């Protein structure tokens, strides 16, 4: 059966202006104020598609033109063991990763697959340019795998210090190229490299990060999975964040579900976590500041090297713009927690004992936030709580065999744009 593109328009969240998507619109062309745009779907009811596989069962609330091979949806289950450990009767874990025992089969072990399958399905089949994605690790693996499986040209820009995260079940297609910034550089430097590459708009175009409605609404399927299982909107939501895009996505789908009306009117509190000492979002929020607090680049790079959950080290998160994380936290009465490396290691091991699989460090960071929120009384025993476990099962998945993808090129982000463009283009 031929897939019919989802019907939607875009809305500037600052002005409320509704307009047509021109195909890859990342912002309102008439706006002078930094603001996210949000998808406004023709279907106002949450309607899982029983005729579509994997992630695309949620296609009615994804801004897509087609479907791709190999997707899997997040899996939500009522956690009695971790719930008992934390003193919670209604803890639901939405798991994105490799855990076949519960039906979770994301081969890259990360909820970044939800982004990749949504963003790439927003692309036109006739697109001739090459997509550029910047990543601290998990996003790179997800986009590289999905593009390889579906023959979509891609350049991924990552820090060299994250290249160990580029493991795959099999060798990637030649349509995927990996370009790294040198050791000592961080995610922000990878972003800068990608931005320079995209200055050649005739050959390359940016995925767009948090500004891409398909990325956010792909991530937002985690909440849809939870609500489909629970039957109502949760009271509280927990996730570790680098950019905060996943939490923004959950907030947006929360509002859609309230508009639907069949799942309650709860505006769930957003609780997000960062890995100390890289706590840019945490520090900005605790300072009650819409603007990010100052972070010296060298200090940020050093902190990014120090933390276990390196995917949480974004120096340029969508925090203060209209519709960004500051607004999401403010609107929901949420909060930001910090977790040490030792606390993360504890919850990686404890989760394995209780639930049967290893979490990624970022997901374990979220468990620590939940434990902290219970301890300080922000979450009550009978609250319905959603824990967004954004990745796990990597030990089991890698135990099935894997290959590492080495960088095709290592480039300094300080090089002139034309030199970066020439060197990357020579790879194809």
Describe this entry's structure for a reader.
- It is a single chain.
- The chain is an alpha/beta fold and 428 residues long.
- The chain has a domain at 75-110 and 214-398: Rossmann fold, CATH 3.40.50.
- The chain contains 14 helices and 18 strands.
- A 6-stranded mixed beta sheet has the order 4-5-16-13-14-15, with helices on both faces. A 5-stranded parallel beta sheet has the order 12-8-9-11-18, with helices on both faces. It has a 3-stranded antiparallel beta sheet with strand order 2-1-3, with no helix packed on it.
- A hairpin with a 4-residue loop joins strand 6 and strand 7.
- Helix 2 (112-122) runs antiparallel to helix 5 and helix 11 (341-355) crosses helix 12.
- It is globular.
- The two termini are 34 Å apart.
